[in-house]
Amino acid sequence: MSWTRAAGVAAIATLGVAARDLTQKKHALLRNYPVLGHGRYLLETIGPELRQYIVTSNDQERPFSRDQRSWIYASAKHENNYIGFGTDDDVENGVGYPIIKHRTFSAAVPAGGVHAGEDEALPSAKVLGAARGRAQAFRPCSVVNVSAMSFGALSGPAIEAINRGVAMAGALHNTGEGGLSSHHRQGGDLILQIGTGYFGCRDEQGRFDLARLKDVVASAPVRAIEIKLSQGAKPGLGGVLPAAKVTPEIAEIRGVPLGQDVISPSRHAEFHDVDSMLDWVELVAAETGLPVGVKSAVGDLLFWERLTEQMARGDRGVDFVTIDGGEGGTGAAPQVFSDAVALPFFVAFTRVYRMFAAAGLTDDVTFVGSGKLGLPKNAITAMALGVDLLHVAREAMLAVGCIQSQKCHTDKCPTGVATQSPWLARGLDPTDKAVRLASYVKTLRRDLLKVSEAVGVLHPGLITPDDIELMEGQRHGRTLREIYDYEPGWGTLGRSLDDEICRIMLDIAPQGGSAPPSGTAEH
Questions:
Q1: For a disulfide at 382, which of 59, 168, 387, 403, Cβ 3.0-4.6 Å?
Q2: 151: helix, coil or strand?
């Protein structure tokens, strides 16, 4: 085609667009500025990408800044994730900036190699389910695990990549409430989440079916069961999976009709208060032998008051509590829920932890934190406050290819992570991304271990609320204990748990050292 002809075709097309713009009544901008007005919609469409790479500074963007994403990407690719020329963070003026206080002399000495510690699993300081004598109680091999994201919300290749990756890293993979799919069966150990829709363990009427639950548990390496009460993205609100997204595979996994909207109610049908919930927890635990816990965002504290009161009696209880921050998350939700419903993680967790601590229950419960804790600074702060396990979601998505385009709710994720489009999902190679997920988990654990040893302890669970201060610029700082009103001993492990994890870490953790002493060295 000659240039003259091509120009003519372009001119005719432009005139056609102009004619359409001038006659349509839906968009005033296009009626007033035909053709040119489309530029505004183009810029709006690619606005998140422009802000990511052109407009914002390294530490400004939300929910994850460029620095944070770069650290995750480099860690996932097993590249150098060190930085040079000092921090980008505004330590001179920032309020609430955490400072971890290292020790000059201690028995724990960090290994100096860049990758030292990456091959260590960094186990939990607590045995999940031991306090209540569950038949299949176990010590999680990794303090870093992947949080609840359902097949349906994420693509099959993304779920497969995550499950393969956690198998490589010795971590756990939470199924999310959408049921246990073939994509979850790639070798990784699982936490099976049960939501209000009872997907995968329901009968034809949508009622919970204990026999089906036991069949699902027996069919896969399920290590624990998590009862979802609410999540940070939309606390107190149910959900809808539109009929258009219900593929035959999803319908079979969830046990729902094909061609109909799938409704997740806002409340459970099997219990209506704390007392009946604990009865159901004990039933599920007895029938499966597995540790059973609850996941919830935090708002009104009456539920937690009743739970600690009931558990203090000693006859019933949950094995773990997962606190989800209200900052948002992977679930699509009304903006007001993501922005303003439920407390942010650190406020939420400490309010709940204080209740368990006051009741003397903290050694009997494994505390799981979820809410942007997949970054070393946040993770260390959380563990100093009493978190035992870290469950990461958006960070895991970034590790397997997410670019924070924020199109999760549109089914048009450009990297194939959060979509059911076969065309988009085909771009995600599970084999390659599994290695990246594993590398990210291992690198985060490495950093947690190195920081712990710099503080003078052998495990991040031994860092105390006194070891971290939140700064107000360069004026002064206050310890986590002061800020969150922790009493002496809170945020720490009991003596027996402390001694046990120290014995374990002495056997597996790499140790650093010093140059050979000279003849004048003091011994």
A1: 387
A2: strand
